[in-house]
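User: I've been trying to design a sequence by hand for this structure and keep getting stuck. Would you show me what you'd pick, starting by listing the structure so we're on the same page?

Assistant: Good idea, let's start from the same input. This is the structure you sent:
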């Protein structure tokens, strides 16, 4: 099966747009993006795993999580949810942090605008990530965001097969 995957960098707007098709219903894909017990199963590039420290999926709520390297290091992230329109759309701010949830001002944070649509029996997720500056955008591209996302979304493909 050939599922759509677009990764577009717009340096004029400091954005990355990721459009990805999944062989699953929109409700199931939405749940995988918005429930910590499901996010923990796929939200990290191989060979990393994810653990949630706390999650409150509501406007003004958050997700505090770590991506764990099998060698030991933990990379902490903090997502603050801004708007939520169930199974259609949510917006959030994503930042790097420490295990206590203190945001790291040295690393870029970004606004995420995530939209879920139907494509026949499949779901399409479009994510527009907006950075404050071109420099911030280039930092995450150099950190391997594209390769990491490809691996992470392939993990979601495999995980979705186990949920049907």
């Amino acid at each position: 099966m050939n599922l759509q995957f677009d990764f577009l960098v717009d340096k004029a707007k400091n954005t990355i747009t990721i459009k990805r098709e999944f062989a699953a219903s929109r409700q199931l894909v939405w749940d995988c993006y918005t429930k910590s017990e499901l996010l923990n199963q796929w939200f990290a590039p191989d060979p990393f795993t994810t653990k949630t420290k706390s999650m409150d999926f509501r406007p003004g709520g958050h997700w505090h999580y770590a991506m764990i390297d099998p060698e030991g290091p933990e990379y902490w992230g903090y997502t603050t949810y801004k708007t939520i329109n169930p199974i259609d759309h949510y917006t959030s701010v994503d930042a790097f942090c420490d295990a206590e949830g203190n945001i790291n001002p040295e690393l870029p944070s970004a606004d995420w605008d995530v939209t879920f649509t139907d494509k026949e029996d499949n779901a399409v997720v479009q994510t527009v990530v907006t950075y404050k500056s071109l420099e911030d955008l280039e930092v995450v591209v150099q950190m391997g965001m594209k390769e990491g996302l490809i691996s992470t979304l392939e993990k979601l493909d495999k995980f979705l097969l186990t949920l049907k």
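That's my pick for every position. To get oriented when you compare it with your attempt: Residues 108 and 140 are 8 Å apart (CA to CA). The chain has one domain: 5-163.
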